[in-house]
Amino acid sequence: MRTPVAPIAAAAAFLVSTAHAIELKFAPPDFETEYAMPYLFIPPPDGRNTWWEALILFGALSLTTWLVFKARSRRGLFGVSVFSLLFFGFYRQGCICPVGSTQNVAAAIFLPDVAVSWIIVAFFVLPLLFSLFFGRVFCASVCPLGAMQELVAIAPIRISPALERVLGLGKYIYLGLAILGVATGAGFLICRYDPFVRLYRLNDNFGMLIAAALILLIGVFIARPYCRFLCPYGVLLGWMSRFSKFHLQIPPSPCVECRLCEDSCPYNAIDMPTPRHLVEDPAQGKKRIRGLVFLAPVFILLGALGGYMMYEPLSRMHPTVSLSERIALEDRGIITERGNLQADTFRVEGKTAAQLHAESLAIKEQFKTGGALLGAFLALIISIKLIELSVIKKRTIFEPHKETCFSCGRCYPYCPVEEGA
Amino acid sequence: MSERKKIDRRDFMRFTGAAAFTGATWMAVGEKAEAKYWQLDPAKCTQCGQCTTHCVLNPSAVKCLNQFDICGYCDLCFGYLQPGSRDLDSGAENQLCPTAAIERKYIEAPYYEYKIHEDKCIGCAKCVKACLIFGNGSFYLQIRQDICINCNECSIAKSCPSDCFSEVPQSQPYMFLTGDTYLAHPPALS
Amino acid sequence: MLEKREFDKSDFLWRLSSTITIVAGLFSLLVFILIIVNYWMIKRADPVNHELLTYLRVEYANAPEKDEALAQRIRDLDLITRKAFFTSQTHLRIGAWVLLGSVSIFLIAFKNMMRWRPQLPELADVPTADKEFLAYAQSRHLITWAGIGLLAGGMMTSYFSETALTAELLAQPAAAEGGAESAAGAGQAAAAVTAPAWDEMLVNWPSFRGPGANGVAHFTTAPVSWDVESGEGVRWSADLTMPGHNSPVIWGNRLYISSADETVREVACYDTETGDLVWKKTINALPTSPREAPDVMEDTGHAASTMAAHGDLVFALFANGDLVALDQEGNQRWGRSFGIPDNHYGHSSSLLAYGDILYVQYDQAVEPKLHGVNISTGKDAWVAERNKISWASPILAQTTFGPQVILASEQDADGYDPVTGNLLWSVKCLGGEVSPSPAYANGMVFVANEYAVASGVTLEGAEGAVTATVSWEFNELLPEVSSPVGDGDRFYFGTAIGDIVCLDAKTGETLWVEEVEDGFYASPILVGDRIYIADLKGNMYVFRTGSAYEELARFSLGEPAFATPAFMDNRVYLRTPEKLYCIEAP
Question: Is the peptide bond before A96 cis (omega within 30 degrees of 0)?
Fold first, then answer.
């Protein structure tokens, strides 16, 4: 039997201007009255993502830089934080933010058919460039995520530096996972699990709202938990800041070593002067460094192996993989209840399970490589951290740690050295 | 102060690094620098109803529209009426739309105009499904670009089972089923 | 005095700010709880899935007569639900801003409270710097342990996740994928089937448009005229209950048809002598079958593909992409799902079997393919990639350079090796939505479709090196659905507007055009020197082949004719929407 081609479909062909063929089951009416077909009210997008948003970002960064270096005003920085929270947060609803833009840039690098607009590039690059010259001024008061945490950090306590460093590994893991997610097409993890963006929109996924409330509650006592332990963009900012030309200094003029600023930083970001007496035998330290450098490749290989082995659970963050497993389990009668929307829709759409599984296997292959790279990256970071912790630099003054200092200016009021004194 | 060099080597490195970094990012990102908006392809939509609940906005930025030039203006409109309606009128017992967002207006026998009040529409796609099965499919969902806040990762797209969300260029922020003959604001933005 | 006043001031500020902190904190907490309650209420008052409302609506629709009181109740409830929904949303929005405000006050007050808190200056006794540097060792240990923990945790996770489903398991060609699902049971090996030879196929009616699906009956006689209404010439008839636009196929004394609607798929077997229903089988969904019915046009339906009868086996393909093989007793040998085709009218290409292979032309919009399916196992012997969508069916042409499977798509006509599936030749000579299948006769392939062009393609060369060239084109009257047939010297076809057209096979010259009552969906069949073709109104035209139209008979079938009749052994088998007829010359 041939397929009859309904004559109406041929008539409809004249109406169709896009790729989709539409079958009109009922011919459009021929009105006898003076009826005029109404126009659809289809409003264009508002002026989102235009150049002035980048300009405001640039302005806020410049203002912060001035406040950090010239005005040395903690109050001013606080004010900019409030502005950022209101503008980038509540008004612009948190999108696009430099933290999330990391993923767009990663997507453009790894996925051949993805291009991103210049505004996203600007949002990604500007804070990093400022960081390269002036330290993490972006974190100080421009980042809407940081601003919110900065504003609630009212009674911060200092946690032990060792704990700080271990928890700080979290952001490297997060960064690695986020890039792995983008490169394999699993999605934008940073946006998906961004707790603060939910608050700007005031209604959203209930669980994430509770998580945001919890993080903020913790943030009252442990300042900026997201920035210190999770923020993936903070890793990049920290790297840049390490090589910054200018950086916030606690005293505006030579330090008198009064030790008043010692406890001022809730972020463990102030480096103390080296103790006068040695904490350990230099020979032993040197030996350890040599050992660590020698062992680093072994660590990296181990990390790569571990990451490779993780490909199976890691790949489940990709929707195709989880769908394919669900379908396979259903087909084998292991899962009997229906009602999984993704699986049900798959059944309707008529792609075969074999095709889906083939796709899933191809994705898993990507995760093998990606997992190994992720493992190696984390092992490399750990090796570097260990080596760093074995090197004791000679330091005579109190100064902020360039990588971890948020340039928030909390230490300013503690310094008794007056400008020009 | 130490002796000033003509070119500070570290500064030079820094500037070169910054320029190289910006340039490399720009290159990696590609030449197409147009802003993108999320939109859903009505041809792929399976009317699962997730647009109602999975948008970060409440009510959802996804709204139904009636494209009049492919509408049959049916008296017995399945997108408007409950299945098995006893009367073809606007009584609540006969209306399919859970928020009564569709207005039915008599034009001439036997034609009725169906207009969607988007302030009431919550994007549940009930009418879309019914119109697609029994009618021309002139009801369909679109993201209203003036409401959508254009999240970096659209949370409906993430949960859409039929993969019908994609990012469209700024110049064409809507995906209509047919031409743009009856659009008050043609999607082309200058 | 002055000092005391100063102290008082800060004490007062401290008290004030701590009071505000507590009040604002409690207030925020209250608002927060209210918002959660409200959120929960919105979830419950969801007008989209309101249980009571849905229930009442069903009640109302099912009541024998209109129930005004119930209607009123629905109206009231609907109004309340909608009002509650929209009000709650407004409340949620307001509540969120109130919460934001109260939290801001709380934070400001808390901050001031900390500032004015009476406290003694702290004295640092142990040099912090020493502690800091001692912490280096502690940090190194912790980081090392964290690294070990990560590695161990990762390995543990990957080890335990193996228990779920691994890539290796997915890759297995398990029951569901890549091939056949045995209905009898997974353990039972599919018994090899002996494929019938070509000669055997010629004395049967194994597929759409006869052996090789070429529109030629290899019998020379058939009744010329009959009358369904008076029963003249009708040997038997059977009532059909389920819809299906496919044509009957016959092997031996068994006739098979398939039928389907959105939910049920059936294959029925009739005795050709008596018209008795031998068996009727409902085809169950396979584990991999799509769960919902595909969207098809009414003119296509859910069972448009004609079955293939092939010795001991019969095959049926349905619009949802399910293909099954049954034996002569109706036992399902195997089944597989191709998935719903991406096809806006519905799948209509018919099945064709030759040798060990069943050809499934799955020309859909995305990834069109020709599957060469092994008749014994149901698995793909080979798969050929295709270019475009089509609604035509494959034909088997016995050319002088060996047999070929010839296909038409939206763009080209292609010849394939029936055994290996290799593409032998391909000509771009079509355009638009192709429904008519190709016709082959005497070295010429004829392909055509409405709104485009008809082409005569000459096949030349030798076995293994066939060249195809378009010899002529014709674009005046074209077939839309009905397929052409060739007698060697001429090609004949019926158009959708009601013309029977005869073209010279060598030159493409129009020999004659006969205008008749209605258009054609069913295809012409050549029986000896006669051609039978039925129009949509149900008029059967019988004419002699030749350079002029010579009508032998014209009569009404009494019902519209969509399906092409089957001709076998001096009998005609005809499927109309409601009946199945067997016509035999008296």
Answer: yes
